[in-house]
User: What shape does this take?
Amino acid sequence: MPHIALTEGLPGIRGPMVFSPETTKPLCELVELLLTGPHTLTPAEREIIATYVSSENDCYYCQHCHGSTAAQHLGGKNADYQFISEIKKNFDATSLSAKMKALLNIAGKVQKGGKHVTEADVSRARAEGATDKEIHDTVLIAAAFCMFNRYVDGLGTWQPKDPEIYREIGRQTSKLGYVGRDYKKPLEAIAGKQGETEG
Amino acid sequence: MAHIQLPEGLPGIVGPLAFSPYTAKPLLELAETLLRGPNTLTSAEREMIAAHVSYRNDCDFCQLSHSAAAAAHLLGNYDLVEQIKISPETAAVSDKLKTLLAIASKVQLGGKQVTTEDVARARQFDATDKEIHDTVLIAAAFCMYNRYVDGLATWAPSDREAYRAMGEQLAHEGYVRDRFQEGQKAAQA
Assistant: This one.
């Protein structure tokens, strides 16, 4: 049960988003700017940063939505989903670029607290070719997900466990982005089996 | 020294906001809506939640600027704001605000720390769903702003007087302003 009365059948952040449209507008614009659109970091790379931070914050809904969106950007095969789950476990052991590993290291520090980021962390990212904008955006993506994760978990939102729901969310978000969507509309993967996935 | 090259002389979050104006827009709109939009919680109460969370996140710039904003809404009552940051249970504020501050403290630690009991206690003192929602989102948002400010190692002025002026401006003019220009003027002064 969520801590406040939210529309039933809307998973994770979608309940609070529909509850509070006036705050949803800037929240959606922020995530759209951070994770979609032209950038020297690919949408998959930026979704990976969001996924990793959400996993470190232990937010089930956010890590699976953004993990699925990242996997879809990479092609949407089972191997892509497997790659995302390996990144969450131990990104240093994956085939990610050295620059991405250095940026994920910074994101992990931001998750613990802003002051954990050291000059050495930033120098390492620069040595791998990271620009000021990439470092800035990594810090802001990580910080923003420390907000989104707390928003989703702090209200005790409904977070279904059915992987097909997250596949659908990832497919839609990788194509449509975050703004101008109808978040009130129930997901197809939920519509058929409400009750089965409840809890 | 900040971790990236920021325009000089801009304090705290103003540097990164100027560095990245396109993300500044939704960040400032969010703060404006949360802290100054129409609400049954006063702006002073909402700024106190922001100051309390920023204090617990040990973010000097945010806690001092939002303390000053709260105090500006309270006609300069800095003593009350200091109490709210350090021991809200004993501060001279309503029981409702105390229970909301307790929820905000839990959110600061992590979303899952908020319990049904925390929320039930707030409801006992007539907190509405919207007030609970807004408290959670203000606390969550300051877990973002604080990390943004400290994660880039921005400059926080040590002069308390600088925050007093910022607080007046935040309280009375709000968050959606041309801060870059203001900062440049301040730097030249």
